[in-house]
Amino acid sequence: MSTVLEQPRLVIHGRKVVGGIAEGEALVTQETISGWGGIDSATGTVIESRHALKGVSFAGKILIFPGAKGSSGWSNAFHLARLRGTAPRAMIFTVMTTKIALGAVVMRIPTVTDCDVDPLDAVRTGDWVRVDGDNGTISIWDRKP
Amino acid sequence: MVALTAQEQAMLGGESGAAVAKAMDLLVRYADALGAERFVETNNIAGVPGSSPQWVKDHYAADGGDYRAVFSRYDLDSDEAVDVPRMNAFSCHLQGGMDPELWREQGMSEAAHANFASDSAEVEAHGIQLLKTCTPYLAGNMPVMGEHCAWMESSAVVFANSVVGARTNCEGRESTSAAMLAKRIPDWGFHRDDFRKGQHSLSVDVPVDSIFEWGMLGYFVGDAVQDTIPVITGSVSDANLIRHKHFGAAAASSGGVEMYHMVGITPEAPSVEAAFGGAPKGERFVYDAAARRRIYDSLNSVGNSTDVDYVMLGCPHASIEQVAEIAALIEGRKVHVNSALWVFTSRAVKIAADANGYTRILRDAGGYLMTDTCSAISQAVPKGTKVAALDSAKQVHYLPAMMGIEGWYGTTAECIDAACTSKWQGRLA
């Protein structure tokens, strides 16, 4: 194990939505995600027809996306994912709604919004991302350091 | 950080009991997540408090695995189970998982029904109204202009904001359950004047005058403006509650619209200027004959076979006027042997339908009038269903994708014809 920590490619700053610290592999989409009717909570998979992530699982990933859309059952669908152990590990989003705010709270995962750099441009799927919700700091590496 | 009044601070500190304290704790976390600066008081809540499938109860087996455990640990997101008293606010239960009487016909198991009945008894015992509908405004909960509400159900939210001028965000299960105890919801979004102004213009250039046409326009509007607020002008006519219900449900499904202004029709839009309220007038969209054709084709793109084996009406739940229309259309006819007809409504409307003989007319024709749920919510369709006919843009948006079936969109009359002939013959006039 290296004793010298590799510097992140980029550090961006935003606002805390939910505190805590988590890191993992990024899953980035330019599309909003539906909860009820849009995901399978049992597997943490996007099921919406024609969605860029259809069939892709967000379980254990750092989910980076514009935010929530669709039914008022959004928080419920993602809360059930938490119970199933298929929730994302952290979230970064760009458009605030009641759906995503409540969903982030009840999933109890570090979540950041209002970033100084657009995370949808700055982060690629597969990057390694560390989200410090309390400080609103997001660190990005090309791969796990 | 959200600022608390002395009373809210006391509730958070436990002076109103453990459950209220847990509710305030969740609401404070939610308000901080939103960036809200204060709460508004509300005494009109609609959600799905404490109802859960058996596996969720089993998940909280260590806490008793019962309604108390689910309401505490899941609805209030509490780390411990606490005693849950009667709700403090006027609280309503929205749609649920099955018809309380026709659940066998819906294919539900004895065990699922026993769980449903147990949850219903708990909801009643906690002082929550068993409206069991996506249309609380047709079943005893019609808010008034300016009233702060905390509602779930996107089609009800868009109705309350747009048609009534009441104020609610699209709340979720946990925030509504907490609000039932704390009578508070974050002062954010549609509770605030500046959030309710129009953002984009939308001009209607073809006549929109029936449920069918209002539904298609709604689907177009949501697709065009996504989750922003449109200001709609032009040839929209014959406004009534049912047309608004179908329009809003469609716009909320295709795009997430939570409020719309129709100039001269909805209460916060006496004029274009008032609807925008000084806000910039964003983009301009036009609904013309070509757009209408495109929306019709889009709604029917999941239809291939014309052999219809299921007709579902009542999304959002049918009003008594709609049930009467359906009864008039089918009286003296029979549902085809290869087809089925399920019509969904609220318990309140069903009582009126029973009294007027509509339930019997439907039954004599071979159809059912069902309450509490719909095929999308319950994921229940007649056994072997492959092709459904629907008069709701919202339902054709959701049901075929959820159930892996084909779907057609048309008028109520075309759907009744399909139920009686097992053939889809809908077309765009």
Between the first and last Cα atoms of chain A, what is the distance in angstroms? 10 Å
**Which chains share the greatest interface?**
A-B, 29 and 34 residues
Question: Measured on Cα atoms, how large is the radius of gyration of chain B?
Answer: 22 Å
What is the beta-strand fraction of chain B? 5-15%
- Which sequence of strands runs across the widest sheet of chain A? 1-12-11-3-7-9-10-2
CATH class of the largest domain in chain B: Alpha Beta
Spatial strand sequence of the major β-sheet of chain B: 12-11-10-13-14
Helicity level of chain B, as a percent range?
40-55%
Counted up, domains of chain A total 1
Rg result of chain A: 14 Å
What is the fold-level CATH name, i.e. the topology of chain A?
A: Glucose Oxidase, domain 1
**Secondary structure tally, helices of chain A:** 3
Low-pLDDT windows of residues of chain B: none
**Mean pLDDT score of chain A:** 95
Any guess at the CATH architecture of chain A? 3-Layer(bba) Sandwich
How many strand units of chain A? 12
Produce a short descriptive summary.
The complex is a heterodimer of chains A (145) and B (429). Chain A is of the alpha/beta class and 145 residues long. Chain A contains 3 helices and 12 strands; from the N terminus they run ββββββββαβαβαββ.
Description:
The complex is a heterodimer of chains A (145) and B (429). The relative contact order of chain A is 0.29. Chain A is built from three helices and twelve strands; from the N terminus they run E-E-E-E-E-E-E-E-H-E-H-E-H-E-E. In chain A, strands 1-12-11-3-7-9-10-2 form an eight-stranded mixed beta sheet. Chain A has a two-stranded parallel ribbon with strand order 4-8. A two-stranded antiparallel ribbon of chain A has the order 5-6. Chain A has one domain: Glucose Oxidase, domain 1 (3-Layer(bba) Sandwich). With 145 residues, chain A is α/β, with parallel strands linked by helices. Chain B has three domains: 188 residues, Aconitase, domain 3, CATH 3.30.499; 102 residues, no CATH class; 122 residues, Aconitase, domain 3, CATH 3.30.499. In chain B, helix 2 packs across helix 7, helix 6 packs across helix 9 and helix 12 packs parallel to helix 14. Chain B has 429 residues and is an alpha/beta fold. The mean pLDDT of chain B is 97. Chain B is 41% helix and 14% strand. Chains A and B meet through strand 2, helix 1 and helix 2 of A and helix 2, helix 7 and helix 16 of B.
